[in-house]
Amino acid sequence: MLLLAAVSIGVGKSWIPPTAFFSPADEAQWLVLTQLRLPRTLLAIIVGASLGIAGAVMQGYLRNPLADPGVLGVSTCAALGAVLSLRLGLTVTTPWTLPVLAMTVATTAVMLLMVMVGRGGSAITFILAGVMVSAVAGALTSLVLSLTDDPYAAAEIINWLMGALTDRSFDDVLFAAPFAAAGMALLLTTGRSLDALTLGEETARSLGVRLGRLQLTIAVGIGAAVGACVAAAGVIGFVGLIVPHLLRPLIGEQPSRLLVPTALAGAALVLAADTAVRLSPGAQELKLGVAMALLGGPFFLALLMRLRRRLV
Amino acid sequence: MSLAARNLHVTIGDRRLLADIDLTFQQGKVTALVGPNGAGKSTLLSCLAGLRRPESGAVWLDERPLDAIPIEERARRLAVLPQGAEIHWNVFVRSLVELGRAPWRGARGKVKDIGPVESAMRRVDVAHLADREALTLSGGERGRTLMARALAVEACWLLADEPLAGLDPLHQLTALAALRGEAANGTGVLLVIHDLSLAAQWADEVIVLHEGRVVAEGPPEKVLTLSLLRDVYGVEAYIGRAPGGALLVQPLAPALRG
To answer: Rounded to an integer, what distance in angstroms lies between the CA atom of residue B170 and that of residue B206?
Structure first.
């Protein structure tokens, strides 16, 4: 991952060797490095780690390998919060409203899902409810967009919705980092409870797991981590879905053992994808969110096929 | 030390699952809960385990209402093996059994976990499966693994819902021997069981549930009678003694109604 980070800092429309870091002789290179590449790289790490661990926790909690903050509509809800704050023009005067609204709406979404499905609800109900929440949030986002008169503002929102790490500054990093870190820290505490849930809710409760508290921890943790990411980088889907699956064959399926590795691997995946996207030909870069969806969609389908074979 | 149900009532909608349940269980004994399908055995067990709250009445553990005992402490004192529990991830048998030690984590410093885990696996004959993955297990092997998980808790009460389901005759006996061994060490064992001969041979007490009520309780040879089997199960049965003296209760044919 460190190697990837180094490469990510170097790669761009023009290659800058990492050594330029230590010799600030060339002013332009130095500026590009510190003001563009470095924040972008840091953000890729934060976003990837958050989304990866969020996916691992959701899959563990639901005991279903198809869960992911994107699939369940959490990212869409965070985006709705962010778009609302953009539309209302709050971001101009008070920039912190965007991440805060994004996180609040995302947390509410997870809680809403948990309440709707209720205790003992099956993973299928949860996923169906998530798809519905996702659809409603998407529709509301479109509504907000269509009510935006200013075409430039609308274009900006759409651009941001597609998910990208382009032109981020250290301010974005500073906004996202503490919330993402706090969210991830909360999620890391759920490991043992998730392990116990391997045997179902009844057994988990008989082993002393407080399901209510676990739900709250997960809702707040995912809301903060995913909300902060979406606020900083727009909607980047499928990271949380893909990463745990890539790791399970390597380190086993025990939920607690997946948490830290998924954070690391998530960061590596987003770093790699973002670096690749920068190298894509054409004047305009391919959007990272678009690239991940193009990659993730087929992956999701392949996963479904394999699961079907295993279950039949 | 006792576990007691006081005047339990449970209803779902207009269906009564349990009514007027007043029972006291003792440690060091194996109690078998028997009764036809839908009699309320599992409901009673989950009430006793604190996994389900009765509409009225309460469960008392050592003179304290179960509700008043923190869930972590409860987990160390009551081990529960729910019916047909699933295993959701393809994890190693050993990791599954180790989950039984979860309630002790953080309690009174560091607890030795390896001993209880190994011993639990040995007692239900899954020690040789320790490094197998859950998905590769047969139904019976899975059942024994889950039972080892419950044994590994080393709680003073063990509530097992149909722990023998899917086990071959030898492993049914192994499992029952393990439960008897627990009782000999002072654990209170409650199990839901359908095989009446095994219940008669291995349990100290039998409780018969029918339509949510206790219709008989006591030592097996007193409780399991031809007329009770006819009234509760609707079967004609053979009750006798095997050459070694073991009580045999074998249903033979549906009882003639009339």
So the answer is: 22
Q: Best of A61, A62, A190, A198 to disrupt the B interface by mutation (most B CBs within 10 Å)?
A: A198
Strands B205-210 and B15-26: unpaired
Query: A241 CB contacts (<8 Å, ≥6 apart)?
Result: A55, A66, A67, A68, A70, A71, A296, A299, A300, A303
For residue A268, give the nearest of A40, A11, A44 by alpha carbon.
Answer: A44
Looking at this protein, which amino acid is placed at residue B53? R
B89–A192: do the CB atoms touch at under 8 Å? no
Residue A311 contacts residue A66 (beta carbons within 8 Å): no
Q: Contact B90/A203, CB-based, under 8 Å? A: no
Q: Are B149 and B99 in contact (CB under 8 A)?
A: yes
Chain B nearest-CA distance from A193, in A, is: 9
Our CA-based measurement puts residue B257 at a distance from the nearest CA of chain A, in whole angstroms, of 39
Q: For each of the domains in chain B, give its residue range(s) and CATH number, in order of start.
A: 2-254 (3.40.50.300)
- d(Cα B83, Cα A71) in Å, to the nearest integer? 32
pLDDT digits (tens, 9 = 90+) for A64-120: 887 888 878 888 888 888 888 877 766 666 667 778 888 888 888 888 888 877 665
- In contact, A97 and A85? CB cutoff 8 Å: yes
Query: How far does B202 lie from chain A, in Å, by closest CA?
Result: 25
The reply to whether residue B99 touches residue A198, judged by beta carbons under 8 angstroms, is yes
Give the C-alpha distances (Å, rounded to integers) separating A1 from A58, A114, B10.
24, 34, 56
Q: Using CA coordinates, name the residue in chain B closest to A61.
A: B88
CATH T-level fold of A31-311: ABC transporter involved in vitamin B12 uptake, BtuC (1.10.3470)
pLDDT digits (tens, 9 = 90+) for A117-176: 766 566 677 778 888 888 898 899 888 888 877 777 777 777 777 777 776 777 778 888
Give the domain ranges of chain A: 31-311
| Probe site for chain A from B99, B131, B142, B154 (most A CB atoms < 10 A) | B99
What count of other Cβ atoms lies within 10 Å of the Cβ of residue A294?
A: 12
Q: Which of A58, A199, A251 to mutate to test the interface with B (most CBs of B within 10 A)?
A: A199
